[in-house]
Structure formats: C-alpha cells, structure tokens
Protein: Adenylate kinase
Amino acid sequence: MRIVLVGPPGAGKGTQAAFLAKNLSIPHISTGDLFRANISQNTELGRRAKAFMDAGDLVPDEITIGMAKDRMEQPDAVNGFLLDGFPRNVSQAEALDGMLEEAGMKLDAVLDLEVEEDEVVKRIAGRRICRNDSAHVFHVVYAAPKTPGVCDTCGGELYQREDDSEATVRNRLEVYHTQTEPIIDYYKAQGLLVTIPALGEVADVTQRAMDALKK
Ligand SMILES: [Zn+2]
Structure:
C-alpha cells in the first residue's frame, strides 16, 4: 500500500505513522528521517540540503523530492510505504505523482488526521515540562500535578516551552493551513482522501485508520 499521511501539528501524526506502518508492514518515511539519514551518510543531496540549512534557508523542493525518490526505490519499499511530512505543498504532490507514474505506480490513499483546532491549542498550550528532566511532562487539565507548577516526580519547577505557547501553536496551524491544505484539495479531487477523526486514544485512531483503509 502506498499512503500519504497529512494532519496539523498536534494531531499525533508521527505516532500514528509509526503504528500504521508497523500494522501494514511498510516503511514509515518521514522527511525528518530523510534529512538526517542523507546528512549523516554525507550523500550529495545531504550535502546540498545542509548548505541551505546552515545558511538558514529553506531546502528547495527538488532536494527533498530527490531524497524521497531515493528512499522509495529501496528494496523494503517495493510493497509500499507511508509518507509523513511529504508532500507538504501542491508542487511536491505533483512531483510525487510524476515520480510514481514513471515507475508505473500510484497512491492508494491519503489519510487526513482531523482535529478540532481549539482542541489542539488546548492540548499543546496546557503542556508543562519539568526544568530538571524534560521527560517529566504534565498538563494543566489532562495530567495536572498535585501542586500547580511543581513536578510530582522530582519537585522541580514546571514551565511552558516557548514552542508550546498559544501564539506559537496558532501560528503553526496558520502555516499548516496555508501550505498544506491545498494538497488536501488536490488529493480530494483524485478521490484519494480519507478523513480520520484523530481525537481520542492512540490505538482507537489507528484502528479507525486501518478500518478506513480496508474499504
Ligand atoms: Zn521533574
């Protein structure tokens, strides 16, 4: 099965991608992993990507597309793959279609993890992390510490990461809407879009996605 997974920040996309890939016995291909692998293996694409990143510039689409193509041609991807974080705009989606067509393949489904925006903001902005250990994570509503602002585990001070502030989360959602939502329309027009309600237990969401893929 060849699947693309899309969803806004806070939808649990990385977690779902890992579970779904395991259930379907296909590799989970994330752009983050592609960049790390190409840079650590010092490939030509990795060196080019790094030069842009070091300069603080966005990596051009053609480099990302090249990395994705190399990865999809590896032996473990012959029976399919699950793409996570790619494509992230319509021109990448078109490039992906072209690549697959050349190889005589096509996508089977595009899974869209759907969450209420206010719920995402509530989930992320309520997160509090311990200054002593970032693995000590609390939530002001869903996993409140016994004493507000104090870590239950070690007594450390709890704080909100800059990335988790409401303004930052709203900004990331805005960026997502502008860049990624057009690809949802693009795949909808191809009849590939499958919308999965992504709130609730992780295992329930995975099951919903598996059920939808069987249809
Ligand atoms: Zn702690």
Q: What stands out?
A: The first helix runs from residue 13 to 24. Residues 2-115+177-214 form a domain with the Rossmann fold fold (CATH 3.40.50.300).
